[in-house]
Amino acid sequence: MSRSQRRRHDAAHNTGHDADDGTDPIDAYLDDLLGRLHGPASVVRRTLTEAETHLRDTADAELASDPTLEPAMAQQRALARFGSADTVAHAANRDGAGARVGALLAALIGSAVRMVAIGFCAIALAAVGARALAAVTSVGFVFGLPAGTVTVAAKCAHWLSVQPTAGTCAQAATLENASDTFQLYLGGALLALGAIGIIAGTTWLIRHGIRARRVEQTPTGTRIRLPKTLVPVVGTTVFGGTGLVLLSAAVTNLAVLGLWGRGLWYVEAVISLAIAAGYLVLFLRALTATTVS
Questions:
Q1: Would you give the DSSP letter of residue 126?
Q2: Using one digit for the tens of pLDDT, what is the confidence trace for 124-183?
């Protein structure tokens, strides 16, 4: 027999009523409260359990302070202090809805942050991969300015000044692209990942610190789990679409917004499509698990 069942049995014995015939005031109150609560079953059960515990503890305290008091009267006093079922249910439903919205936002933001972190890892990997491909093929193939690209004289002068070993504007642009890509891609990605790590770590410490200091958790507290297929679908779409765009840029040897390099486009496309393939595998596994269950 559980603790709540034992307490109901004791209450029924003390009042001279059967706990199952609906005459126990606290049981009747809990039945009324149950019909007014909304939300996940686990949250409703927790609300009822905590309400019953509080009510019976209060009734016990009333009896302890006045041994001559009838048990039924002690329960009525506990109910009067606790509030009507309508008032309690309204507050619980309101707080529960707010908690679920907050939990949903937290789950979405957490998934988005992880996906952004994967994106920055891909950028860092692209910087290293481009250097490796240039060592195997040539710097011109990976970072070279497409033939026929019209450049501004001021830019040519700048590239030639920072790359004194280059004999032409195109060679200087290629060398500068190789240098900037490695530094900006790798350095920027590492800085961004570090910032994400610090923010995520600080958030984790704050959340767990608050939880550790709580003596009691509200009955409406809940944790939202996103559908298992949601993140894989988004990841497959985002990285797959990006990979196809990058692959198109590589095939056409595109130069746009100061970005160029056929080999660099290929490296970025392969990495993006590989990540998309990983998300696709996760999606298929989640879909299979959902279908089986």
A1: H
A2: 999 999 999 999 999 999 999 998 888 889 999 999 999 999 989 999 999 999 998 888
d(CA 102, CA 223): 9
pTM above 0.90, yes or no: no
Q: Dihedral, CA atoms, 44, 46, 47, 53, nearest 10 degrees?
A: 140
What Å distances lie between residue 183 and 43, 92, 130, 131, 176, CA to CA? Answer: 51, 54, 12, 11, 11
According to DSSP, the residues that pair with 254 across neighbouring strands are none
Q: How far apart are CA 25 and CA 33, in angstroms?
A: 12
Residues in Cβ contact with 132 at an 8 Å cutoff, skipping those fewer than 6 apart: none
Q: Which two tokens stand for residue 57?
A: 């503890």
DSSP letter, residue 229 = T
What would the pLDDT profile of 227-266 be if each residue is shown by its tens digit? 888 999 999 999 999 999 999 999 999 998 788 999 999 9
Please tell me whether residue 88 adopts helix, strand or coil conformation.
helix
